[in-house]
Amino acid sequence: MQIQTRYHGEIEINEKEILHFTKGIPGFPDEKQFILLAMPDQNLFTIMQSVETPELAFVLTSPFSFIEKYEFELDDSTIEQLAIKNQEDVSVFAIVTLQDPFEKTSANLQAPVILNVKNNEAKQVILNDTIYKIKHPLFEQPVKG
Description:
The protein is mostly beta strands and 145 residues long. It has one helix at residues 76-81; strands at residues 2-4, 10-12, 19-20, 33-38, 45-50, 57-61, 90-97, 106-116, 121-124, 136-137.
């Protein structure tokens, strides 16, 4: 399947790799299908590109690459909605806000993107009663080595 993208131009994608957000994502309720695209020459960041809207793409990262103890519990309805059977089925991403200078870049740790890697069902979860911020500075702590 061919799609137009914000950062990669027109590309061929495998329909089996499409992520399904049943209820869309906050702020974009009609955007239900995204694809993860690698960024060249690095592995800390990836692009979550809308399949339908070429100009809609988010930069993602694994919060575990930056935050020593990033922990939260998923509620039962999210576990059920994503059909999560065990912890190994889950990938967690944070949406990144790029800043200039780059060292001021932040990640939304209060609303992680949860992906069931077995079935590609995904959801952006808003954490309540959390110490995490919407704009958590990524370079506040040393990168885990």
